[in-house]
Design brief:
The structure holds three protein chains of three kinds. Chain B is α+β, with helices and mostly antiparallel strands. Chain B is 23% helix and 35% strand. Classes of the chains: A alpha/beta, B alpha+beta, C mainly alpha.
């Protein structure tokens, strides 16, 4: 064997050794980016890395289960833990794309209440554990002087006579159609019953028609605060945590209108075939413990998924004057007229409504 | 349109500079009569093509005036000058057939279809290319393309035709053939032709007059015979035809004859054509075919001793390279006559010539 | 010489045979050199495209995962009431899929044909273990929908592995058990509209690129070297910048509070309250795409123009044509191969564009590729994405064929 060959073999062996070790220690955690990922890094990743000795690679994505599906079906799973929406978690689990998570192994509350009882109803699933409750609301910029009264209801969002100007909305039928029905006077308790009928769908589109020419459609969560700050829109729908972040961290004077808010869950899932299942499970257990969930709430205004975390919610990490509990979607003042996203409805009707929504957009 | 006294084409004190620092054409004065075939001959970079382009209107004169038919044309755009032009690479429009190429100048002149057909046919007949009317230029040989280019430049019956090295891309045989053809067309049509080339035999074959260009200046403007027989300076002598040069110093000038001491110390007499008075350096020019090689000095002729270095048999003559007065590139053309001298390499003999055939010109380092 | 007599080599073997023998080795070597590339092209290009086309007409999810029911569904006429036996087989398959965790795939597949059936399958599968015969009653008791013939028709359709359904959907039609192909109602039609819009936008982008690129290419080809080099760098500069950066730059420039609108307001062309909508619509898509695709027009044009000697224009002018006439009649026809190549390149690239329209397109600036991306990434209906992609590919091939017929592909000059 020549000297050069020896060197190459040695080098290859070494790199394989290094790489092998690195894979074992690196957990790839995938989330939605921006202020949200930041809150997770601060509240979950850093303490877990310090405690476990593993390291975490944080990646951003735009939601959906396409990437998970591609990884699982190709047998090359590089994501270990993913933050997904509820309907996606259910769907991916049904398709066998996710590892099951045994709820009994989740940490109990400080007072000893088992996890299954401590988690809010509907936040634990076969393959997924919720960490936060987030909400879709609409928001305006109170610093921009306009000759109208501050909007109060979902109806105001659709009232172009009283509030002329562009509006930002997420380019998705989900939430958008519910907002339309709420604005059209459907009580939140009946929204999905109405939307489940042909007339209901027609009614939602009819309502959306009234503002169609004034809508700028956004797709990434970071867009709406930007649209609002740039003055591109007067109102925009947004995820409440992003808005809070713009207010608390960037000194924007955005005001949220909580009337008709639609709240949903974000959950941890582990793609089937993850190379670090044990570490991933450990991370999920660690991050969904009472303390960590409460901690996260000091970074962003998303509500913890455990009842025991709620009393522990403190102030904004950067400003002790901001009491985080008041900014949660579940705070009593905000929760008066709220709707929970019906994952089953969307799992059933997503494809169809998406198609109709896109067709409506293209008209 | 001409009033007799005015030449057809006139360059008056024309100067041209591209960069504002050097002159490509220096104070050009040239008059061309109607019906003449004038060639601008010179090495590349001598300014001949620039002059042609100024005449065509593609370059503007930096100074001076160009007149056509007695009228200044400096400010007339090329398409209004009515000058036909044949380009170096023919510039036949590749997307048009031969007939369409010929029709082009007639169409832009809004001629009637019938007239156009007539003229195109006549032009094609002139160059014997009627059968190729429907071909694309790419389907023609170089010589055929050349004829079409010629026909196109003539089809709208211009009074002046410019040709920019039109035969440069052809092989030797075809080139010679085309030279005669162009010459005949010129004679038949009586158009004025200004022709640019760097090939002296082409110039000698075709032209009424030749303007020899060098360094932006016309060195000599003359008929071919005069140019060859009576070059007025060293450049022309060397550029046109073959020439032997000997350098020396003028000792005296009497009645147009200069007594010259060569650098080798030999003394000869020469016709003083372009040389200053006594004491100045001069280059003597002698044509190889005007020299005689002999064992003895011939009476009445200037003679120098030389040594035969090389003999090349060329059939009609023998090319003899000699060392004469320190110049080892001295060529003599010895006619192939019956009384052959026994020329031998290494032999010493005399080279002699008539004093009138040895022209004392401006000094030029050879 | 007698023609029928084959010519032979010096040793008596027929010359043709001898020649073949002599050429064999060099042919073998040539083939050996080409094989790796050929294999690469096949593996990385031809095979994936064929696989894509195949996926557009073939989806065996249902037949594969419901092995008991599949045979029964195939023979079922599609209109009569499903039998108890079919229900029993359905329950058996649901149980198996529940155990294998594949019920989601089956549910998704049927849901593509009939919206609202996803949870019907997933929730029933969860309870399937406990169901007792008679299964027809039991199933209908769990979910009333199992009695609906439409659900069974949807299953029969998805049971068909080779299906024209996805291509039908791509053309805004529906393939049904009893009626064959049916056009969807007006307000649900989307893909045909998007195809037409894609062609229109691509066409406009191509024309704009030609209008803007032609003079630039002409300057590039005719300016002195030191200027043309600088200009060439400016043309190529966008190539060295990320697509996303360029697109977001356009957002900054064109948005209603952006540079252009600020300028227009400042000049007084428009009021502060009535700023122009230059982005998040078709205008924005066309502007941004034109900018991004411009080099693809300029470079082929430039490469053609560079080979046109200036003597053609001079010849035309010496023959009496005005500068304009010379340009139009002599110069432009010679640039046709460049126009064709640039146009085809820009058009084909444009119909496949999706990042830029997604970012600046708003609602009326979306192209068909955005729908393909949507079905690839969001709805996970890869078969529909494949069918849409297949149609797009077909469009490109038709275009290519038309180009070949009209201009001739040999005349294309890319550089």
């Amino acid at each position: 064997m020549s000297g050069l060959t020896k060197k190459i073999v040695a080098l290859a062996g070494m790199s394989a050794f290094v790489a092998g070790n690195a894979v074992a220690a690196d957990l790839t955690v995938v989330s939605w980016g921006g202020a949200y990922t930041k809150s997770q890094v601060e509240a979950y990743h850093k303490p877990w890395m310090a405690q476990s000795g593993h390291s975490i690679i944080s990646e951003d994505y735009g939601g959906g289960i396409a990437e998970i599906k591609a990884q699982v079906e190709s047998g090359n799973v590089t994501w270990d833990v993913v933050d997904v929406e509820l309907s996606d978690a259910i769907r991916a689990c049904d398709e066998g794309l996710l590892e099951e998570i045994d709820h009994s192994t989740l940490p109990a509350a400080p007072d000893g209440t088992p996890a299954v009882d401590d988690f809010l109803p509907g936040t634990l699933h076969d393959c997924a554990v919720a960490n936060i409750v987030w909400s879709s609301v609409y928001v305006y910029d109170s610093s921009k002087v306009r000759n109208w009264n501050a909007p109060k209801t979902m109806g105001d969002f659709f009232n172009t006579d009283a509030y002329p100007g562009k509006r930002g909305m997420r380019k998705s039928p989900k939430v958008t159609m519910e907002f339309a029905l709420i604005a059209d006077g459907v009580p939140v308790s009946e929204v999905y019953d109405v939307l489940g009928t042909e007339e209901g769908i027609e009614r939602a589109f009819a309502k959306l028609d009234t503002i169609k020419d004034d809508v700028i459609w956004w797709e990434a969560g970071a867009q709406p605060p930007q649209l609002l700050a740039d003055g591109e829109v007067i109102f925009t729908t947004a995820w409440n945590g992003r808005v809070f972040n713009a207010v608390a961290a960037e000194d924007q004077s955005f005001e949220m209108v909580w009337d008709g808010q639609i709240y949903d869950l974000d959950l941890w899932v582990i793609p089937k075939g993850s190379k670090n299942v044990e570490a991933a499970l450990d991370f999920v257990r660690f991050s969904t413990a009472t303390e960590q969930l409460a901690n996260q709430a000091s970074w962003i205004s998303y509500g913890p998924a455990r009842a025991s975390s709620v009393p522990l919610i403190g102030t904004y990490h950067d400003n002790a004057a901001i009491n985080m509990a008041d900014h949660m979607p579940t705070a009593p003042g905000n929760f008066a007229n709220a709707l929970q996203n019906d994952f089953e409805f969307w799992a059933d009707n997503q494809d169809d409504l998406n198609e109709r929504f896109n067709a409506w957009l293209a008209q | 349109m001409l009033d007799g006294s005015d030449p057809f084409v006139r360059f008056k004190n024309v100067q041209k500079s591209y960069d504002g620092e050097t002159l490509v054409v220096k104070n050009l004065n040239l008059e061309i009569e109607a019906g003449e075939f004038v060639t601008m001959l010179g090495p590349s970079g001598s300014g001949k093509t620039t002059c042609l382009m100024m005449l065509a209107g593609f370059e503007t004169a930096t100074h001076g005036e160009i007149e056509l038919g007695g009228k200044p044309i400096n400010n007339i755009p090329p398409h209004k000058r009515g000058i036909g032009m044949v380009f170096q690479n023919y510039a036949l429009f590749p997307h048009m057939t031969v007939a369409e190429n010929l029709t082009f100048p007639l169409k832009v002149r809004n001629m009637s279809a019938g007239d156009i057909q007539d003229k195109v046919n006549r032009a094609l007949d002139m160059v014997q290319m009627r059968a190729f009317a429907d071909r694309k230029p790419a389907q023609l040989s170089g010589g055929q393309q050349q004829r079409i280019a010629l026909a196109r430049a003539l089809v709208f019956e211009p009074e002046l035709v410019l040709m920019d090295e039109p035969l440069g891309a052809l092989d030797k045989q075809l080139r010679e053939h085309m030279q005669y053809e162009i010459k005949h067309i010129h004679e038949n049509l009586g158009v004025t032709v200004v022709y640019v080339t760097h090939d002296q035999s082409e110039a000698l074959t075709m032209s009424n007059r030749i303007a020899v260009f060098d360094d932006g200046v016309i060195q000599q403007l003359d008929a071919p015979v005069a140019l060859y027989e009576k070059p007025e300076n060293s450049f022309v002598a060397q550029f046109i035809g073959e020439n032997n040069t000997l350098s020396g110093k003028v000792d005296s000038l009497t009645k147009g004859v200069a007594a010259v001491t060569l650098d080798s110390g030999d003394k000869v007499k020469a016709l003083a054509v372009n040389t200053d008075a006594k004491g100045s350096r001069t280059s003597l020019s002698i044509r190889p075919e005007r020299c005689i090689v002999s064992q003895k000095k011939t009476a009445g002729l200037s003679a120098l001793k030389g040594r035969i270095e090389e003999l090349i048999y060329l059939g009609d003559h023998i090319r003899c390279r000699m060392t004469v007065a320190g110049n080892n590139e001295f060529i003599v053309k010895v006619p192939n006559t019956a009384d052959q001298l026994g020329l031998e390499i290494g032999a010493e003999s005399y080279v002699s010539w008539q004093t009138d055939d040895c022209r004392a010109l401006d000094f030029k380092e050879s | 010489m007698d023609v029928s007599q084959p010519i032979t080599a010096a040793d008596g073997t027929p010359l043709k045979k001898k020649l073949a023998q002599a050429m064999f080795r060099s042919k073998l070597r040539a083939t050996g050199l080409v094989v790796p590339l050929l294999a690469f092209v096949l593996a990385s290009f031809v095979f994936p495209i064929l696989a894509l086309m195949w996926q557009g007409i073939h989806n065996d999810t249902f037949a594969r995962l419901m092995p008991n029911l599949t045979e029964e569904l195939r023979v079922w006429d599609g209109v009569s009431d499903p039998t108890e036996e079919m229900y029993a087989l359905l329950v058996a398959d649901l149980r198996q899929n529940r155990a294998d965790k594949t019920i989601g795939k089956v549910a998704s597949r049927v849901n593509q044909e009939l919206a609202g059936t996803r949870s019907l399958f997933t929730s029933t599968a969860r309870k399937a273990k406990k169901l007792e015969p008679p299964f027809k009653e039991a199933l209908i008791k769990t979910k009333k929908k199992w009695g609906d013939i439409k659900v069974w028709q949807a299953m029969k359709l998805t049971n068909q592995s080779l299906t024209p359904g996805f291509y039908a959907t791509s053309l805004d039609a529906r393939y049904t058990v009893d009626q064959g192909f049916v056009m969807k109602e007006e307000k649900r039609q989307i893909y045909t509209k998007l195809f037409v819009r894609t062609l229109m936008i691509s066409g406009s982008v191509m024309l704009l690129c030609l209008l803007l690129g032609y003079p630039v290419a002409y300057l590039l080809a005719t300016l002195p070297l030191k200027y043309s080099n600088l200009l060439m760098i400016m043309v190529l500069l966008p190539f060295w910048t990320s697509l996303l950066v360029r697109t977001t730059a356009w957002i900054a420039i064109l948005q209603s509070q952006g540079v252009v609108n600020d300028l227009l307001v400042w000049i007084g062309i428009t009021g502060d309250e009535s700023r122009f909508s230059l982005i998040y619509n078709m205008t924005g898509t066309i502007i941004a795409m034109t900018h991004i695709l411009l080099p693809f027009m300029i470079l082929p044009l430039y490469s053609v123009m560079k080979t046109i000697p200036p003597s053609y224009m001079r010849a035309a002018r010496s023959l009496g044509a005005t500068p304009t006439a010379a340009f139009i009649k002599v110069y432009m026809p010679q640039t046709v191969p460049g126009i064709g190549a640039g146009g085809l390149l820009v058009f084909i690239l444009a119909i496949g564009y999706y990042i830029t329209p997604a970012l600046v397109g708003g609602q009326d600036g979306q192209l068909i590729s955005n729908m393909i991306a949507y079905h690839m990434q969001k709805s996970l209906n890869w078969s529909l994405a494949a069918a849409l992609g297949g149609l797009l590919l077909l469009g490109v091939l038709v275009l290519y064929w038309a180009y070949d017929r009209i201009i001739g592909i040999d005349n294309m000059k890319l550089g």
